[in-house]
Write a structure and sequence with these properties.
- The protein is an alpha/beta fold.
- The protein folds into two domains: 151 residues, 3-Layer(aba) Sandwich (Rossmann fold), CATH 3.40.50; 180 residues, 3-Layer(aba) Sandwich (Rossmann fold).
- Helix content is 26%, strand content 31%.
- It is built from ten helices and 18 strands.
- The strands form four sheets. A seven-stranded mixed sheet has the order 3-2-1-4-5-7-6, with helices on both faces. It has a seven-stranded mixed sheet with strand order 12-11-10-13-16-18-17, with helices on both faces. It has a two-stranded antiparallel sheet with strand order 8-9.
- It is found in: Cytoplasm.
Length: 339
């Protein structure tokens, strides 16, 4: 089994976990929890990633929680935090989990050095001591313990609020840390919205993030039936809050590409992700494009924005027979295809 670099450095330090009830959280991407479970009293996972949750949900040996906040009761006395790409998300997870588990909780933090994992030294200072105990494969391994009472966690305090102006409409956006375009209006999304035709029927917003695209589409096309999906529980929570803030209706839910969606969409609209953690990752978008025809109605349309360097047109052409470029600027292109 090939593990990620953070898991490999953790594997070197299994003695830290002996006799512990370990709760794993953060940017975990491999099957290392199964290995860890052999060396500790119990292992559970809290993940905001729906795809990762689905991988572990079927295994009885490891309990897996999915959501934007851990609300279930757990007997964990140690956190293993895989440092996420966004520092703000790390702080969110750390604060939320320590508030849940309480004083005396031990913590191990692992991550690639380029991800900014060193920030844990300052971030954890108010909770207790933490020190680096290992470095390998350009990763660091920290161990610490919460010796102070953690403050009460209220998720509402973590939403960043900002406004998006589009065609004389003002959209109130509420976004949690770790969500794409957190706190700002992404230029690719703006070009996509400027290019969209009038929408009708059942519309899917794939990779909804904080809900900007879906909210604008619903504001301009109030009669559409809107589904908004994302793999991230933080995005789902953000989109729900954004719709609520604008008195809009839509169905927001987690889906690993089309795993939980309906079929027969008139439009699939997306600013799809192409990063997973610190690495460029295209597989979910490729699946989005390849399977789009079978999820569209007759003459249904796929419209997406992408960075100009991404080679999506050949995939779209293979799936649909043709790929049109509706608009472009020096960074983004808008692609479209019709069933």
């Amino acid at each position: 089994m090939s593990y990620s670099a953070p898991s490999q450095i953790t594997q070197r330090q299994l003695a830290y976990f002996e006799g512990k009830h370990v709760l794993i959280a953060g940017e975990l991407i491999d099957d290392f929890p199964f290995e860890l479970a052999k060396h500790c009293e119990s292992t559970s996972i809290f993940t905001t990633n729906y795809s990762y949750y689905k991988q572990f949900a079927e295994h009885d040996s490891i309990h897996c929680y999915f959501g934007s906040e851990l609300t279930e009761t757990t007997n964990a006395d140690m956190i293993l935090l895989y440092w996420p790409k966004a520092k703000a998300e790390a702080e969110y997870l750390l604060t939320m989990l320590l508030a849940k588990l309480g004083k005396s909780t031990e913590i191990v933090v692992v991550g690639e050095n380029r991800s900014g994992v060193k920030s844990i030294e300052k971030m954890f200072a108010d909770f207790g001591p933490i020190n680096k105990f290992d470095s390998a494969r350009r990763c660091s391994f920290y161990w610490g313990q919460c010796t102070e009472e953690a403050p009460t966690f209220n998720q509402q305090d973590w939403f960043k609020e900002y406004q998006v102006e589009f065609e004389n409409h003002t959209i109130e956006v509420r976004s949690l840390p770790g969500v794409f375009s957190h706190g700002e209006f992404d230029k690719g999304s703006e070009l996509l919205l400027q290019t969209l035709p009038a929408l009708r029927g059942h519309v899917l917003d794939f990779g909804c993030g904080a809900g900007v695209i879906g909210s604008v589409m619903k504001t301009i096309n109030p009669k559409i039936h809107l589904d908004m999906v994302d793999i991230s529980a933080l995005a789902i929570a953000s989109s729900i809050e954004t719709l609520k803030a604008n008195n809009l209706e839509g169905c927001v839910f987690a889906s690993d590409v089309y795993s939980d969606t309906k079929e027969n969409y008139q439009f699939i609209v997306s600013n799809p992700p192409f990063h997973a953690g610190l690495k460029t990752h295209y597989s979910s978008t490729e699946e989005l494009l390849e399977k789009a025809p079978q999820n569209l109605t007759h003459e249904g349309q796929l419209i997406l924005v992408a960075n100009s360097f991404l080679q999506y047109p050949p995939i779209i052409e293979k799936a649909f027979g043709e790929c049109l470029t509706l608009a472009k600027n020096n960074k983004f292109k808008i692609y479209s295809a019709q069933k």
